Amino acid sequence: MKKMEKEDMAVPADVPAASRAAYRSNYHLATHGTGRLMLFAGDQKIEHLNDDFYGTADTGQIPVDDAEPEHLFRIASQGTIGVFAAQLGLISRFGPSYDSIPYLVKLNSKSHLVKTEQKDPNSKAMWTADQVAEFQKSSGLKIAGIGYTVYLGSEFEGEMLAEAAQAIHRAHQHGMISVIWMYPRGKAVKDEKDPHLIAGAAGTAACLGTDFTKVNPPKKEGHDSAELLKEAIMAAGRTKVICAGGSSVDTKKFLEGLHRQLHVGGVSGNATGRNIHQKPLKEAVRMCNAISSLTFGDYDVARALRVYGGDEEFRV
After folding, report:
1. Which residues are catalytic?
2. At what angle do helices 70-78 and 281-295 cross, to 10 degrees?
3. Is the whole-model pTM more than 0.85?
4. Which residue blocks in the chain are alpha helix, DSSP H?
5. What domains are defined for the chain?
6. What pLDDT is attached to residue 204?
């Protein structure tokens, strides 16, 4: 697909003049100049504890490779991605050994132990965007931006919305991009995948001023999920929408779904975790490349499957 030159990229007005070159560079780094984002999600070490990394997944036994955190960094360093999202502590430990990876620092996280039936979700920031900027300068790592999860509909949504807004603003001050995970969740939410609600979540992310928002693909009986995404794309305006990858599924089914999200729904990328890291290293790297071939290269599904199978290479 046609790539944008850095000087042609639209820069939000809250990015000061002194940080505009850095913002363009980070946006270009994360999207490879395409305006689309392939986010490799490695933040699940807190979100799902060890459930996703050891034992049995939906598709069978999780490979032993996935048992240690370095598996994530090996994949991100060898595969074609946009950014690798993880917590600052993990990046500080492994980043110096994998300094070629473009990182996105996830500021907040919570485990899945406390269920919504017990208490509405509340995920507080563990670091600030200013601290991430300081870390970037001191470490010299490629920190392209920050990420934050908001649980819209939780009784604590106000706290998370305020933290997210400040994180986006401060990230922009430093020339970093932002990605907001926007998930309707809480006792007040009857259907987390309701298309109208997903669109409302995307519109909320736009009001916060984020560059990208990650949403779950909407679902409605008798309707095509990719078609349903169109309402969210319109609601998000100039904030770009990417879809969560979800639990591990058959590779062909996953790639077909992503292709429809991109070309029917109109999303600007994807955020994929389990469908990548719950594979042995070489296969996980090929999966990264297949996903990126759809996202950055506009490949069709058949060609992306050849990339996944190792019969064709993809690099941007």
Report:
1. 183, 214
2. 50
3. yes
4. 20-31, 44-47, 70-78, 88-94, 129-139, 157-173, 195-208, 225-236, 251-260, 274-277, 281-295, 301-309
5. 33-309 (3.20.20.70)
6. 98
